[in-house]
Amino acid sequence: MDGLHLCAEWHDCAATALLRDRDTLREAGVRAAREAGLSVVGEVFHAFPEPGGVTGVVLLAESHLALHTWPELAAVTLDVYVCNRSGDHSRQARQVLATLRAMLSPARVEEREIMRGALGRPPAVPPASPA
């Protein structure tokens, strides 16, 4: 379960028409994941009636990409979580986020990185100090 969870809130997106476009957002999410080298295993995207936001998930063998748009606010929230016992996919997760950020062109960006999976581990033991 070790992995990187990226959480993004993008405001004042210049590409406001895209925030209503379910098909383009689905294609962009799938393409961004594949181009980053992640394994897409499914996807579901839903468009809401006016004001027409979209919610969607791209399921990855490594975990998921989820996005939610608010066209009336020119805003997007987005999560990319990668966890895989076979390797570190942090670079790929950051690439997905960067690709979608470039496409939607937010003027204001809030992003956080959460390292997941440390709950069951004992705390690190500090090195012994010299006597």
TrEMBL record:
Q: Which GO terms describe its biological process?
A: spermidine biosynthetic process
Q: What are the record keywords, sorted? A: Autocatalytic cleavage, Decarboxylase, Lyase, Polyamine biosynthesis, Pyruvate, S-adenosyl-L-methionine, Schiff base, Spermidine biosynthesis, Zymogen
Q: Which domain of life is it from?
A: Bacteria
What InterPro entries does UniProt report for this protein, alphabetically? AdoMetDC_C (IPR042286), AdoMetDC_fam_prok (IPR003826), AdoMetDC_N (IPR042284), S-AdoMet_deCO2ase_core (IPR016067), S-AdoMet_deCOase_pro-enz (IPR017716)
Give the required cofactors: pyruvate
Q: Which GO terms describe its molecular function?
A: adenosylmethionine decarboxylase activity
What is the E.C. number?
A: 4.1.1.50
Against NCBIfam families, the record matches this protein to: SAM_DCase_Bsu
Q: What is this protein called?
A: Adenosylmethionine decarboxylase
